[in-house]
Amino acid sequence: MPAPAPAPDPERLPGFVLCRGGLEEVVEEELRELEIEVVGRHKRAVEITTNLAGFYRANMGLRSALNVLRPIRSFNARNYDLLYYQSRKTNWHKLFPVDARLRIDVKGHSPKITHTRYAIHRVKDGITDTFRKLCGGVRPSIEKRDPDVHIVVYLEKHRATLALDMSGTPLFKRGYRIEHGEAPMKEDLAAGILSLSGWDRRSPLLDPMCGSGTLLFEAWMMAAGIAPNLHRGFGFESLLDYDQALHVAEKRKLEARETHPEDLRLLGIEIDPGTGSTMERIRDKYFPKSPIQLRRGKFQNVNPGPGFGALVCNPPYGLRSGTEAEIMPLYSDLGTFIRTYLKEGSAAVYTANHDAAGSFGGSQSSSIPLLNGSLEGRLYRLKQAQDDPVRSG
Q1: Are the beta carbons of 120 and 104 closer than 8 angstroms?
Q2: Which residues pair with 151 in a beta bridge?
Q3: Burial class (CB in 10 A: 0-12, 13-18, 19+), 243
Q4: Where residue 392 falls among pLDDT bands split at 50, 70, 90?
Q5: Which CATH architecture has domain 187-229+261-383?
Q6: How far apart are CA 191 and CA 177, in angstroms?
Q7: CATH classification of 13-165 is 3.90.1210.10, yes or no?
Q8: Rounded to an integer, what is the distance from CA 315 to the centroid of its chain?
Q9: Beta bridge partners of residue 42, listed in sequence order
Q10: Which tens digit of pLDDT belongs to each residue from 333-368?
């Protein structure tokens, strides 16, 4: 007789971690480092199973993710009426208080559910009708700007999943970027680029067009083992099963992982005086113990000195600022800079201007597609100690 199957752990809960396209593998590795069980990988999402402690830890510790979702109900979404009926059947009153302010969003894609605003409307009706019936006619309010609870309708092919967004505000909003320069890079993308760049988190790192410093700040937190979201609020704090003591305990565990390495060099070069000043203000306020340094001026005129083992940058694309005539020489100068000051090691350049990428030595075969909003960017990787660029595998 076969052994009986083990009883399911009542504390284990399903979850989905959303990310931008191209960072699924990076997020999966980050989850494993946080000791969270990965079930599978999907397009722009990683499926997990964990407990409340794991949900708290994921939100505080993930670097390249956007949101952490806790599924409540999954069903075959054949039409919009089913969105209402399934929402109506869900015991929302056991998940969050009646006076909570709600936001509802649709993520993913479905061939049957194509009208986003109507889908949101049907789910909202189902939720509010449930509260009216069970809470004496009282219902939550809808608040798009500053909600207490964020509900996501996640669509994948013919299935819909109603989920609580445990993150609330997207995870790329760490809280340190109170001001920024032109066309700033999101923090989750910066962290993902660093993970994919080949940088070992110990070699001296150089960003010749650092802007307001996002790549350098994320690099410092990675090297020092600093969880990126320790000091912000989360959506799970508004839920009825929120355990503050558990939240604090997980925060303390993550703080215990910090290492603050000595002799690490992180150098940025920035041509715009205002943007450089912004970078220094953020550094001094939020990262005072970091070794991040800034050199002002055109990178073409700056000698960063020897010993750099990695270069990562996000140059202008010439798509929304600048012109093609300016971008080609800029990218050519960047290639010269890389060959001059990065004798050995890895260089990674993220851009959405693929026609100009060859000017700094980038090639399609050594690049990784990564979406930057609606822009189809690529991370071009080059290895200086070899004749051929690094292959993306």
Answers
A1: yes
A2: 104, 164
A3: middle
A4: very low
A5: 3-Layer(aba) Sandwich (3.40)
A6: 14
A7: no
A8: 20
A9: 45
A10: 999 999 999 988 899 999 999 999 999 999 988 899
